[in-house]
Amino acid sequence: MRGEQGAAGARVLQFTNCRILRGGKLLREDLWVRGGRILDPEKLFFEERRVADERRDCGGRILAPGFIDVQINGGFGVDFSQATENVCSGVALVARRILSHGVTSFCPTLVTSPPEVYHKVVPQIPVKSGGPHGAGVLGLHLEGPFISREKRGAHPEAHLRSFEANAFQDLLATYGPLDNVRIVTLAPELGRSHEVIRELTARGICVSLGHSVADLRAAEDAVWSGATFITHLFNAMLPFHHRDPGIVGLLTSDRLPAGRCIFYGMIADGTHTNPAALRIAHRAHPQGLVLVTDAIPALGLGNGRHTLGQQEVEVDGLTAYVAGTKTLSGSIAPMDVCVRHFLQATGCSVESALEAASLHPAQLLGLEKSKGTLDFGADADFVVLDDSLHVQATYISGELVWQAEAARQ
Amino acid sequence: MRLVILDNYDLASEWAAKYICNRIIQFKPGQDRYFTLGLPTGLPRNHPESYHSYMWNNFFKHIDIDPNNAHILDGNAADLQAECDAFEKKIKEAGGIDLFVGGIGPDGHIAFNEPGSSLVSRTRLKTLAMDTILANAKYFDGDLTKVPTMALTVGVGTVMDAREVMILITGAHKAFALYKAIEEGVNHMWTVSAFQQHPRTIFVCDEDATLELRVKTVKYFKGLMHVHNKLVDPLFSMKDGN
């Protein structure tokens, strides 16, 4: 496993002439890596009396923790919700291609599907470390089918389900074994949701509220039962109302368990959320904001018409429409584009924008000791960015896994 | 002695840094010829504000020194006296200290040689004076109970053995100590005064630190600045042509 074999003897890499994101600030510091982890150079100096085996000059660029995408439905023509014959290679393709977006870990997302699809697909996508082959899989995000009919959005109505009859057993019967599952999005107003939320939480699975008509009270109760995330805030939920803020009200609720931070996904592609709404959410609760792409299979396919499963999609720049219409067909903005747009729309600091795509998703999943951070001992998954936050290079476990054309010598 | 007076903290720091650079370059160090720089020591390890962390963050991480050539007194050693004796031995084996750079405490101490320290003392364990503990409190969130009360330190005699000594003094709160160190007699209550008997001492200070000196003294040394500034004229780096 990473970092285990003869770590003490492994090569020490020193990334120098850079600014690193640490402790919420961009510091002019060197980044030291050994055995796939971030190394404490002071200990190396005083206890081991060693210097770096190799120095890499970063040209004054920014080194930030690798981005983590907890909601991505596919890309490059691959649809994670399809029970095809080559699920593994589909996931692998996406994992490799998103490296250029600065994503080093992700949660492949499945939308509402019939049980057969879950039973076939879920076991084939295990948790997997990243590397030159692609970004790491942290676990699956199952969005649906236990969601509101009214707020199903693009999810197929025929496959919506409830767990009123047997609560958690119904969920297990639908999904199959949950070993590879990391996040489940459900609507808390569904009957017996609290039992399900508690059971999922007890198994270490993150419960997210979304595609729901729950009011604020129901949402707060769900958080008390264990829910910690909101799926794409504003979308597929009741709009904020000043006498019943709905799920959106969780951002400023004072009825949540003490010390608990509620996280919420935001699609900052410049289309799905009005910048003013983005700013309201960010200003109300900046600590909980998690940037997600919610990307559809058309991600990365380039302009023009594409056939994706049963759908015809027209891609024009950063927007995807149902072909021949003006109806949005889903997001196709890569994660680094989302980060840049988020920075520009909210006027927040570079540090905040970077943390929204790295630290916060890591905190959501309880992984902040090893992911989403450049603290000593964390996995050396990071991106090299220029001052306008364009990805120049991506590293996983201290190994270069992608590099921009211009940066190649 | 030389007394070099600069306008403020930053200029004094820069002057001192350039001087040290030039001394090292002039020494022409090489594979078998090491320039031994002495710095004052103190504070036990394994503390966030330990001297090791301080030295790492403020010095070692910015330069490319071989860690084996950095010797720091280990406040956590089992036998502290043996640790001190070994340190003195290492200095001797390295051929002595070429340049010792230190500061001055408000009570006139050099390194942790508190008032009353023998002027011929060697590296040893010292109990710190209240003044020093108060001065160090800022590194421990102002909590006096957290400040170490004992420290290993090089002795006055150890520093006197160095071939050259540079003392950095900035700030009005050090002014009285500077006065006592250079305008009064050699006195073990103001241990920095011992360097009046060192053949090659240079004091680098800012305006504020001269506040307790006689105008005559200050004018004399300021008048010599054109000479002093020659000492920091850029020399060729060791790396260009050998």
TrEMBL record, chain A:
Domain of life: Eukaryota
Pfam families with a match to the protein in the record: Amidohydro_1
Stated name of the protein: N-acetylglucosamine-6-phosphate deacetylase
Pathway it works in: Amino-sugar metabolism; N-acetylneuraminate degradation
Record domain Amidohydrolase-related: where: 62-401
Cofactor binding summary note: Binds 1 divalent metal cation per subunit.
UniProt cross-references to InterPro entries, sorted A to Z: Amidohydro-rel (IPR006680), GlcNAc_6-P_deAcase (IPR003764), Metal-dep_hydrolase_composite (IPR011059), Metal_Hydrolase (IPR032466)
EC number: 3.5.1.25
SUPFAM superfamilies for this protein: Composite domain of metallo-dependent hydrolases, Metallo-dependent hydrolases
Catalytic reaction(s) noted: N-acetyl-D-glucosamine 6-phosphate + H2O = D-glucosamine 6-phosphate + acetate
GO terms under biological process: N-acetylglucosamine catabolic process; N-acetylneuraminate catabolic process; negative regulation of UDP-N-acetylglucosamine biosynthetic process
Record: active site: D294 (proton donor/acceptor)
UniProt similarity note: Belongs to the metallo-dependent hydrolases superfamily. NagA family.
Molecular-function annotations in GO: metal ion binding; N-acetylglucosamine-6-phosphate deacetylase activity
Swiss-Prot/TrEMBL keywords: Carbohydrate metabolism, Hydrolase, Metal-binding
Transmembrane segments: none
Annotated binding of Zn(2+), by residue: E143, H211, H232
Function: Hydrolyzes the N-glycolyl group from N-glycolylglucosamine 6-phosphate (GlcNGc-6-P) in the N-glycolylneuraminic acid (Neu5Gc) degradation pathway.
Binding site for substrate: A154, N235, A236, R243, H272, L328, S329, G330
Upper lineage: Eukaryota, Metazoa, Chordata, Craniata, Vertebrata
Cofactor(s) the protein requires to work: a divalent metal cation
UniProtKB/TrEMBL annotation, chain B:
Name of the protein described by the UniProt record: Glucosamine-6-phosphate isomerase
Entry's Gene Ontology molecular function annotations: glucosamine-6-phosphate deaminase activity; identical protein binding; isomerase activity
Biological process, per Gene Ontology: carbohydrate metabolic process; glucosamine catabolic process; N-acetylglucosamine catabolic process; N-acetylneuraminate catabolic process; UDP-N-acetylglucosamine biosynthetic process
PANTHER family in the record: GLUCOSAMINE-6-PHOSPHATE ISOMERASE (PTHR11280), GLUCOSAMINE-6-PHOSPHATE ISOMERASE 2 (PTHR11280:SF9)
Intracellular or extracellular location(s): Cytoplasm
Family that this chain belongs to: Belongs to the glucosamine/galactosamine-6-phosphate isomerase family.
DNA repair as UniProt keyword: no
EC number(s) stated in the UniProt entry for this protein: 3.5.99.6
Entry annotated with the keyword Ribonucleoprotein: no
Pathway: Nucleotide-sugar biosynthesis; UDP-N-acetyl-alpha-D-glucosamine biosynthesis; alpha-D-glucosamine 6-phosphate from D-fructose 6-phosphate: step 1/1
Superkingdom, natural source: Eukaryota
Alphabetized UniProt keyword annotations: Carbohydrate metabolism, Coiled coil, Cytoplasm, Hydrolase, Isomerase
GO cellular component: cytoplasm
Group of enzyme by EC: hydrolase
Ranges for domain Glucosamine/galactosamine-6-phosphate isomerase: 43-198
PROSITE patterns linked to this entry: GLC_GALNAC_ISOMERASE (PS01161)
Coiled-coil parts of chain: none
NCBIfam families: nagB (TIGR00502)
Catalytically driven reaction(s): alpha-D-glucosamine 6-phosphate + H2O = beta-D-fructose 6-phosphate + NH4(+)
Subunit structure: Homohexamer.
Family annotation (InterPro entries): Glc/Gal-6P_isomerase, Glucosamine6P_isomerase, Glucosamine6P_isomerase_CS, NagB/RpiA_transferase-like
